[in-house]
Write a structure and sequence with these properties.
180 residues; mainly alpha; three-stranded antiparallel β-sheet; 8 helices
Length: 180
Amino acid sequence: MSEQNQHNVSAFYGERRLARGHIADVALSLKRELSERELASVMVYSDQSSQLVEIDFRGSEEEVLARLPARQGGGAAAPVETGRAREITLPAHLWAWLDGQPGGAGTTLRRLAEEAEGRQQSRTESRRRACDAIQNSMSALAKKLPGFEQAEAALRAGERRILKPPSSPGPRACAPTCRS
C-alpha cells in the first residue's frame, strides 16, 4: 500500500460521514466548516485500519496540521535485522541477470524473497484483519442502530449480502465504510 493511502481517513458526525480523504485535507476541511462544539463530536477513522485517529483541532490551521499524526496504521518502521550469509547455486545466466539489477544480486534476491513471502500471506488471516477493521467502524458508528447485531453476525459468518446498503432506515451512512 502506498504511503499516500496510509494517510487517508474518514470523518463522521454521529452516523453521517462528513469527509473522506488525506488526513491533512480532512482536518482542514473540518476545521474550516465546523464550530468548536461540533468538532468535539467528530470521529475520525483511518481508512486502512478503521482505528480512531486523534486530531487536536485547537489553534490555527497551521497548528492543527503540525500536530497531525505522521502515519496512520503503519506504526514505527521495522528495525533493520542483520542477515545470515548463505551460499546458493544458480546458473550463470541468472547470476548475470541478478548482477545487472539495481542494487546488485543480494538486494534483488532479498526483494524477490520478500515479495514471494508477501504473496503467501494467508487469506484467512487477511480476512480476519479486514473483519476486525470493519467491526471497529461498525461498533463505533452503528452499535445502537436496528439490525446491528445481525450485521455483525453476518460479517463474522462471511455473509456479504447483509452488509449492502439497506433499503429501509438503518446504518446507511456507514455502508460505504463497511463495504470497503
